[in-house]
User: What shape does this take?
Amino acid sequence: MNKNIIILISCLIFTFCDPFGDSFNNIDDVIYYEASSMSSGQILFLSAHHKVMTWNVKFGGGRIDFWFDCYGDRIHMTTSEVEDNLQALADFIIEQEPSVILLQEIDVNSKRTAYIDQVQWLLDNTHLNYGVYASQWQNQFVPSDGLGPVDSGNAILSISPLTNAERISLPLRSDQDAITRHFYLKRNILKAYISASLTPFWVLNIHTSAFSQDGTKKKQIDRLVDELDGLNMMGETFIAGGDLNEIPPGSSQTSDFQDSICQDEDFLADDYDDETNWLDDLYANYYPAISLDNYLSDEESQFSHTTNGDGFWTRKLDYLFTNHPNGFSNSETHQNTMPLSDHAPVSADAYFFGCWDLGSYSCSEPGASIEYSCIEEGCPEGYICDSAGCYPSQCYCTEEGMICTEDCGGSVCVSE
Amino acid sequence: MYQSRYIFLFVYLIIGILIPSTIFDSAEFIGVKSRSNSLLQPKIYGIRPNLDISTYASLSLVIPNISVKYRINNNDKWQMSAKTGFAYPTPLMRLLQRNGTGGIIAPDPDVGDFPNLIIIKQKIIATTTIGTTTFSPSFDVTLGFREGQFDDRLIIDHPLVYSAMMSAFRGPAYSLGFACEKELNSKWRIATQNNFIFINGERNKHFRNSSIISRKIGKKYSILLGYTLSYGEYPFGDQWYLVPFIDIQKVWKK
Assistant: This one.
């Protein structure tokens, strides 16, 4: 038998073999989604502000007590459990009407969530049309706790198209053995661009490590700061957010949270004593949805996480930041969502003048023929006031064209 | 160490049982008083000229198993044999149903323990030889007898295991096979086996191809280099899966 044939066969065998199916690269591993039904007459928003939301949805697990929280021993949900929990998430999203939502811990093909593609499911069952997804935990088979196949990660959903999406890999934990690390989470920043706006902007979604004890989380936060600084230096506008697994600077409680009952070191995530300044750069350089002053004046009202579904939120881990000088307004931590996830969503209005999917229309200068004194005097009915002037509060794209709440041909939307 | 043992068991489960079961199988017999043993394939005992017994002896504590192959017809061109197999995988599955590293099956409280499950497999194989090449089409039926309700969370959702477990849980399952073996010379041999698997109540397709190249070393030993390639339409997506393997086989006469 010719030696070369044996070598060739061996090469073929190992070339085609990706036994664990968990390798990533930055561009190719972002998956683009669209809602399965988007009619041409769908309502599109054209307003001075857009609600942005971040939410760690705990893979649609609601308040089922899973093994990793140490409150229970559940591992896999049934199809009906997942669908019921997703419906509750969708109902809340529809009620809040965010234009952009940053989701963490969302599953697309995991045994624990009955293989339901939750990104597609939410797009199909909410007003949101477009999505991008990047996996942070993708294993063909996790041989631990019966988990089996897992594909879970971050997603950005939006009413308008997302482009130039990228998965930015974050540093891996170094305090695990090689086998555990192989099957463990590979964190990332999911980055995408929204151009259908008068101020086009980047959206960055991050979920940092919860359980590392080797400084990995600090490296991951620093990586986010580097990315934001880079965009800022280039004059780009961004909204960044997610579950940073970190408490704000100056928090009164930094350890011994009453809801942390795990004894296993692998799942200890309640000691922030040495981490109190890790978010300083973000707060110092960018505009948070909830300012540090607001937070420190009433911390409890901004808490966004607890593992105990029967208790109250114990700490703030979820954030939104922007570099747009208008910052955010109407910020809110939705603490009435206790049954829906172990994190509360955080939302805020971003005051970028938006001009979503204008079709055959284009945008003129905002507020060009409207009095700028609206902050004091108010706007005509059908208009809303921004720091730069009055705008139609909503426009609708129909097959016949665009219909705005007031005089559409006035100052904002003009036919091309 | 404790965790490594379970990982080893899982690897053994895949490589030790499922791969060799699809490697070349013919209607021919090993011969009276002949024995065959290997790292990955079952131990075969030649009892009579037309009767072999085989078992994965090293796994018998956790998966009691045995197969009997016997001749049912013979003429100038074709040999026909039947193979009846029995396996009781419950002890191994319960070992693998645990928390922590090495937990392959989830110990979800609302699912309960892995049920008692008896698998019976009936296979018909026909073999003919043209020149130095042997062709062996086959057909087999798998039946599973279990207690309690079926819950698909108990299935090991791995491409190499899924169809075998579904066959047992949702049986009957049918498999159409075609094997081909060629002696290249006195030392070298190649073989390939293809199986199309149809599971009761499922419209999904499952296919498996295994091929080996083997070389005799001395009178008793052979070294086998091969792969198993599977394709399936699973709940977790349509997937191709390729596993290379190396095996050492010993054949001798007592």
Q: What stands out?
A: Helices of chain B lie at 2-18, 90-96, 162-170. Chain B touches chain A through 36 residues (CB under 8 Å).
